[in-house]
Amino acid sequence: MAGGGELGGGGGRPKRGKHSKRKSKKRLGFRIDMTPLVDITFLLLTFFMFVTTLTTPQVMDMAVPPETEDVEVAESKLFTVRVREDGKIFYNQAMDIPQPIILKELRTKAIKSNLDMKNELITVLKIDENVAYETVVNILDELNLAEIKITQALQAEKLNRERKFTISPMTDKDKEEIKGL
Amino acid sequence: MPKVKMKRTGFVIDMTPLVDITFLLLTFFMFTAKFKSEADNEQKFQIKRPKTQADTAKLPEKDVAVIRIAIDSTRPSDTAYYFSVANPELWMTIKDDPSLAEWLTPERKEASKAMIKTVKIEELETLISVSRTQSKAFNITKKTAAEKAQLRFAIDADKRIRFKWIADAMEAMRRTRQTQFNFVTDKQQ
To answer: What ipTM does the predicted assembly reach?
Structure first.
């Protein structure tokens, strides 16, 4: 209704005299009907709001070992995380028997194990081929979040964090180890 | 004295502040709006990315080659790797590489400017190594400060996909000595 009521309204003073041919209207102010302007503006606004994508995709750093001959590592330094076909996660350190673990606990476990061993621990992730990619990313995310805490804790001790992490293929032996658990 | 009854025939709202705010919002959205690129438009599939919490970098807009692995909407069983390079001019040089001559069938050439469907994992390997060498050569000839801007590789996969597909792509990266790469994810809100 803004300004709309003014349409057709003269608003000026009546003529001065009978013989006066001048139509001098003194405009004290005027109104513009803003309704179409607002209409179009809202239309454009909604258009841009729907079209725009505010979230840009993120990237997660990943590294694979170069194709060289196998490096021998002490098994006592290994922290192995295995993911079974049904998405269940198992962890074991060194030669221990694999223990089932839920995703939420993995972070605290990874922090604890890493801090016990300082920079020595090597995290190995073994994933079954049939596991959904989402599960893999969730695990990597938890380990990345753990990494922040580990780095902080080590920095408090004036140590630099050297992350040792690898994804390695799941062998039949690995599958056998976590089969009945 | 009787009360004077005023008959309201209409009322006037001052719309100026409303218009102010609306224009402000409009300009904001107009400047932030980023339209889908040509390559995205040609994309026949949609990737539901996995969500992550950890703070990570944003996907670069240039100098990145993305390997997409999506669940095909038309045929759920059929999944393939899609390869795309963010810079169109770089893709032109990659495409002209003689080692791709056999692979690049007219159909593939026609299919898209930067989004190529690769079916076999060996083809993916060739594409990775060719685009890396070509991007190096490209950056030298351009003589821009882009020597640092090496081509990065990223895997953009649907979260429902089986890990086998990712593992195979990673293996292709490893064989072509591309040991550093990225996984594309969405930030959890």
So the answer is: 0.71
B52 vs A54: CB contact, 8 Å cut-off?
no
* Residues sharing a CB contact under 8 Å with residue A127, sequence separation 6 or more, in sequence order: A82, A83, A135, A136, A167, A170, B163, B167
The architecture CATH gives domain A75-177: 2-Layer Sandwich (3.30)
Predicted TM-score (pTM) of the model is: 0.71
Per-domain residue ranges of chain B: 62-187
Q: Name residue, tokens 């089969």.
A: A179
pLDDT in tens, A133-153: 888 888 888 888 888 888 888
- Each as own residue / partner, the long-range contacts of residues A41-45 (CB below 8 Å, 24 or more positions apart, any chain) are A41/B19, A41/B22, A41/B23, A41/B26, A42/B22, A44/B26, A44/B30, A45/B22, A45/B25, A45/B26, A45/B29
Kindly tell me the burial class for residue B147, based on how many C-beta atoms sit within 10 Å of its own C-beta (0-12, 13-18, 19 or more).
Answer: exposed
Q: Which residues of B touch A81 (CB under 8 A)?
A: none
Of A34, A66, A145, which has the smallest distance from its Cβ to B53's Cβ?
A: A145
Query: Residues B145-183: pLDDT tens digits?
Result: 555 567 888 888 888 888 888 888 888 888 888 888 888
Q: CA Rg, chain A, in Å?
A: 35
